[in-house]
């Protein structure tokens, strides 16, 4: 999306420049990197002062956990074998952090009221019923669990599924219709407020 940040689902191509800084030839040059996975170096033998660019065999896919952690942090370790009689090298490391968007939880809710208008007058008369449903949308960039809706008029509300990935939505429905009362008539309408709830991942 050209925002300069590593969003979940985007990929990162890793490469590594390995330089022989000593005065003896090194063999079996390799790179270990938990994020990059398998890495290919060609050639694997470096004379003093020579370098090789090693490349990860596959791109790394940014995860939601990377977003929660605040960035894609990984450490690459170089390895090589020294000639016989030469002390082993101390494996050098290099850590790279690719910035991600800040982890942010967000929830939106839209209520739909469907009047069972027995006399077709377009008004909620006492004794008529209203079916309530609620569209709950995850507007953040982290997964939400335990999605639910509280509504004093609707009573018990069922949401299925109750886990929403970023951008996903669910339609929750009241388990029973609401029956319009005389007090609603006195109040001038059936007024109620629905509240959406959800649990954020640890660290958010």
From TrEMBL:
The lineage of its organism: Bacteria, Bacillati, Actinomycetota, Actinomycetes, Micrococcales. Gene3D superfamilies: Immunoglobulins. It comes from the Bacteria. It comes from Microbacterium maritypicum. InterPro entries: DUF11_rpt, DUF7507, Ig-like_fold. GO terms for biological process: carbohydrate metabolic process. Residues 4-85, 106-203 form the DUF7507 domain. This is DUF7507 domain-containing protein. Transmembrane segments: none annotated.
């Amino acid at each position: 999306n050209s925002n300069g940040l590593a969003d979940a689902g985007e990929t990162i191509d890793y490469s590594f420049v390995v330089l022989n800084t000593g005065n003896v030839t090194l063999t079996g040059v390799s790179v270990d990197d938990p994020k990059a996975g398998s890495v290919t170096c060609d050639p694997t033998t470096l004379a003093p002062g020579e370098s090789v660019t090693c490349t990860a065999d596959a791109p790394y896919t940014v995860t939601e956990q990377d977003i929660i952690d605040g960035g894609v942090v990984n450490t690459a370790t170089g390895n090589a074998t020294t000639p016989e009689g030469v002390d082993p090298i101390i494996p050098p490391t290099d850590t790279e952090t690719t910035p991600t968007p800040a982890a942010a939880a967000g929830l939106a809710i839209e209520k739909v009221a469907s009047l069972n208008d027995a006399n077709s007058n377009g008004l909620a008369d006492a004794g008529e019923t209203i079916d309530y449903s609620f569209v709950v949308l995850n507007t953040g960039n982290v997964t939400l669990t335990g999605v639910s809706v509280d509504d004093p008029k609707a009573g018990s509300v069922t949401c299925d599924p109750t886990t929403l990935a970023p951008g996903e939505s669910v339609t929750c429905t009241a388990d029973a219709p609401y029956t319009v009362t005389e007090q609603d008539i006195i109040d001038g309408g059936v007024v109620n407020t629905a509240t959406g709830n959800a649990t954020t991942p640890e660290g958010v």
